[in-house]
Amino acid sequence: MKHFLYFLLFFSFCSSLICCKNISSNLEKETIYFSLPTFPTELEDEQTFDLTWQIEIFSADFSDSFYTTENTVKCSVKKNVPFGILATPIITFSNNNKSLLFYKPAGKIYPYSDFSLSWEEGFCASLMKQLILNGKENCLDSAYIERFLSSFNWKKLTETIHSKIEEKANNNSFFNPWQIDCTSLLDELSYGQFSATLLNPKSVYHIEIPKPLETNKKILSSYVPENIFINKSKKLTVQKDCLNSYLIDNNFLALVSYSSAKKISVTKVSLPIYNLEL
Q: Which of 175, 182, 206, 241 is the most interior residue, by most CB within 10 Å?
């Protein structure tokens, strides 16, 4: 990121999400078991499937990626030093052995919450991953990146996301953190600026299921929690002038484009098949 270095230098003075806790120099290791979330079984009505998780673990000086079919992930980490974990579900259909990589990952940020990954925190963990990558692309030393990660109040960020989710739910609406403008958010953070308004997705609308998709049995969002909202409200949460993708009956993807209530288009495309090599 172009201004990541400025972010590192000025973040502690400018950001409203600053944690005053001193950066720990403790190199003591601890072993943690993270539990993975329950994956909804909507697909089992028509097709059985096998579930594999792609796990990504990352910190300022460490990264690892692997697959698992277990319900827990074991991590050996530096005690109280921030790191993130992402778990992306990969579905393999039993009838044709084809794998699908469609859903957004669940996530967790250590050490600011419990040890259970959630779909709601996948965005926050993904944000940490991108900040680490940006720092390394700018040739910043791991110690500097770690200092920055320890300065940011990740707990406040995740709590703000949860608060927005709850607020929307109380108003019969829906909040999808993956619709946040991540590019603008990272750019603002690079200047050491932060406001909760940065977490408000722009131009989001709830629309009735478009007519070309009305006869389909299952319309699934890549953000797992949204599927409960779709099922109850029969509405999609879309961003204006963007391609919003949905999994249709496990057979194809629908790209929904919304410009106005009278200008909605749907393009059907083949499922992207993931080459899963364990």
A: 175
Domain ranges of the chain: 23-177, 204-272
Cβ contact 80:35 at 8 Å: no
Q: If we measure between CA atoms, which residue out of 143, 103, 106, 142 comes closest to residue 271?
A: 103
Residues in the chain: 278
Q: What angle do CA 147, 180, 241 make, to 5 degrees?
A: 145
Helices then strands, each counted (H, E), the chain:
6, 14
pLDDT digits (tens, 9 = 90+) for 159-206: 999 999 999 988 889 999 999 998 888 877 666 567 788 899 999 999
Q: Which of 136, 138, 130, 78 is nearest to 107 (CA)?
A: 130
Q: How far apart are the C-alpha atoms of 247 and 245, rounded to whole Å?
A: 7
- What is the chain's mean pLDDT, rounded? 84
Angle at 202 between CA 198 and CA 205, to 5 degrees: 140
**Dihedral sign from CA coordinates of 6, 8, 11, 13:** negative
Cα–Cα distance between 106 and 103 in angstroms, integer? 9
Q: What is the mean pLDDT of residues 250-272?
A: 90
Q: Spell 117-136 as b/e; 16+ CB within 10 A means b.
A: bbbbbbbbbbbbbebbebbb
State which amino acid sits at residue 236. L
Domain 23-177 = CATH 2.60.40.10: yes
Q: Is the dihedral of CA 74, 77, 79, 80 positive or negative?
A: negative
Terminal Cα-to-Cα distance of the chain (whole angstroms)? 33
Which residue, 234, 271, 233, 265, is CA-closest to 249? Answer: 271
Q: Which helix (H) or strand (E) holds 185?
A: helix 182-190
